[in-house]
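SUBJECT: A protein chain and its fold
Encoding: whole-number codes for local backbone shapes
RECORD BEGINS BELOW THIS LINE
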Amino acid sequence: MKFLSTLSVILVVALSSCSTLQKSYFTVDTRKRVEERAIPVEKLQFYVDKDVELRRELSSRDAKVTSGKVVFENGKYVNIILLKAGTLGVCTQALNNSLDISFENGDNKNIRFNVPDRASSAAVYSLFADQWMNTYSTYNPGVSQIGKIVYDGDIYFMRFGGERPKLMIQKTAKDKYQINTRVMKGRKVD
């Protein structure tokens, strides 16, 4: 019993001493610091912070799809692609105020995240749509915002709960400001 308690204490100390990885929101300031260090944003590992659902209606002749699942809903075929919170993504194109992020392989499979023009340094890159709509009758008319995008060459309607999904990156605990202090020893005349 004493051995198990000693082992558990050693395990806790060992795990807590490791540099922990945590996700943080990708802000204007974060991008500026990354680019100042000459690190291309295309080399960063991105994540989405909440679930996003992409939907499109299909005619019966177009019922075969390459990704997602097909659901027969109210007499129509609906293609649904789910982007789960925490899914890994890579930047395929970086523009002034936006990043195209790809969460799966293939051409034209990008979702754009952006910040407004003249955004503050704390502004977080959020999901962008070609057009924002109040409702879309095929699924839940009570949802306040539905985004229309072109994904994989087809028009999809994005749906999510609450605020717009945001872009995140993984950072280490070492990514904190460090202050090095030393005392000058002085010099004697030769």
User: Anything to note?
Assistant: The chain has one domain: 38-172. The two ends are 67 Å apart (CA to CA). The mean pLDDT is 79.
